[in-house]
Design a protein that fits this description.
14 helices, globular, four-stranded mixed β-sheet, about 425 residues, single chain, binds ligand EPZ, alpha/beta
């Protein structure tokens, strides 16, 4: 699948942001920790979420979709704690089922998630946390196995700030006997959202959003109805889309506080940004100016926004420096961006980007989810037509990406064959 687009239109108008994918993945895992019914809404309709729902159904939970963004889950009839279907290996967040099943059933066996294109993605901190709770963990035959005769509260000091490990340990600790402390915890909004969901189920978690989280284990969790926070990264992506196309876009259904690092960086680059209760408006009349960016755990500049802001800097005036401090291989897309005329030099985890006056349309491949979205933004700013291949990556985390961009005035379409691309290009000329 690929997107074909013709660049040059400033994006103007309003876009509504969906639920946070990276909160939803932990929240869906939490939902199976009770035998009562859980209703979750503001769920993004994206591939990673739908794959996790399939995996939850596969082990015996009843999963009913009430509408496109609402599911009802009852996990009373879970018959297996082994999650090993083909598709689950393709999403990393399957590992949250480890923490959820270990917490509820004292044992779990989940297919080891592969690495992906941005780095090796180890899970040593997750396993360290489970062991601190008294579980034994074994990785064999491509499976991660965890079990505990007794799951008791423990003290975990994370060697590296890890969103996944923080959420996974919180899941298991919620039903452990006694209290758990997680130090050097991740503070992302989606960590807070999973903690809030667990607390709405009767868990006792304090300090989420700070680097010390205290969990007092409870004997059982009850059903709940929960609505997921808006997606900080989807919102940031459309904010940069406005900036890079010299547009005027109001991004609705957001929590402005979650976007502060992105807002301040775009303002440094010359955007005018107005904040409202649940919206931000980005106006970019002139060419962006260069700046420095370093990705950091929240509340620093998010690594998931690094490709998008780097693409905007590649069209800014002056030389910018972007340092990727979270993942070891997150600049792969720069080779693709060079095909559009970008001028960047990557040394290890630092990119030195000399802004150019314009991009020209080209055929590029999406190497991963966020870089794929960034390459689409580049195509929308480029002169002429561009094609972005492997857009299945983008569909993992962006609901209705083409429709939302089209609403904002972008010339973009999802196509499958070369013939469709030719037809689209001809339609632009006529
Ligand atoms: C989550 O990944 C997100 N994914 C990622 O978003 C995001 O980039 C990342 O957090 C950082 O914010 C989901 O939430 C599903 P980490 P996660 O554990 O939890 C190292 C997207 O585009 N580490 O915070 O896997 C790791 O290698 C995706 O939506 C260990 O060394 O990230 C990395 O360098 C891409 N050992 C750093 O920590 C571990 O046990 C941060 O990783 C775990 C992580």
């Amino acid at each position: 699948m690929r997107y074909v687009m013709k660049g040059g239109n400033p994006l103007v108008g309003e876009v509504v942001i969906g639920g946070a994918k990276n909160a939803a993945l932990g929240i869906l895992a939490a939902a199976i920790m009770t035998d009562e019914t859980v209703v979750i809404d503001n769920l993004p309709d994206v591939r990673d979420i739908n794959v996790l729902l399939e995996a939850i159904r596969d082990i015996g939970a009843v999963v009913e979709r009430l509408d496109r963004h609402t599911v009802k889950i009852n996990a009373r009839c879970i018959g297996s704690v082994t999650v090993n279907n083909e598709f689950i290996k393709r999403i990393r967040a399957s590992y949250y089922l480890l923490g959820a099943l270990l917490g509820k059933y004292r044992r779990a066996s989940v297919a080891l998630p592969g690495g992906c294109n941005i780095g090796s993605r180890p899970i040593d901190q997750h396993l360290k946390g489970f062991r601190a709770l008294g579980a034994s963990t074994v990785v064999e035959y491509g499976m991660v196995n965890a079990d505990a005769a007794r799951l008791r509260g423990g003290h975990v000091y994370l060697d590296v700030v890890s969103v996944g490990a923080t959420i996974n340990i919180m899941l298991a600790a919620a039903l452990a006997d006694g209290s758990t402390i997680i130090e050097n915890a991740a503070k992302e909004p989606h960590v807070v959202d999973v903690a809030s969901m667990l607390n709405s189920m009767g868990a006792n978690i304090k300090g989420a959003g700070t680097d010390v989280i205290r969990i007092s284990g409870v004997s059982k969790l009850h059903g709940t109805e929960y609505s997921i926070i808006p997606d900080q990264i989807e919102a940031g992506t459309y904010m940069v889309a406005a900036a890079i196309t010299k547009g005027d876009v109001t991004v609705r259904n957001v929590i402005p506080k979650h976007l502060e690092a992105i807002t301040s960086k775009l303002m440094e680059m010359g955007c005018e940004i107005s904040e409202f209760d649940d919206a931000v408006r980005v106006v970019a009349k002139n060419r962006m100016s260069h700046t420095k960016v370093k990705t950091l755990p929240y509340p620093g500049f998010p690594t998931d926004m690094q490709p998008q802001i780097s693409v905007a800097l590649a069209l800014a005036c002056g030389t910018s420096i972007v340092t990727e401090s979270i993942f070891e291989n997150r600049f792969k897309y720069m080779d693709e961006l060079a095909r559009m005329g970008a001028n960047a030099k990557v040394e290890g985890n630092i990119a030195v980007i000399d802004g150019v006056g314009r991009f020209t349309g080209a055929e590029v491949c999406a190497p991963d989810l966020r870089a794929g979205a960034a390459l689409v933004l580049a195509g929308l700013a480029a002169d002429g037509c561009s094609v972005v291949e492997d857009v299945e990556y983008i569909m993992r985390g962006y609901e209705c990406f083409v429709e939302k961009l089209h609403e904002l005035g972008a010339e973009i379409r999802l196509v499958d064959t070369d013939k469709e691309i030719q037809k689209y290009k001809l339609s632009l000329i006529s």
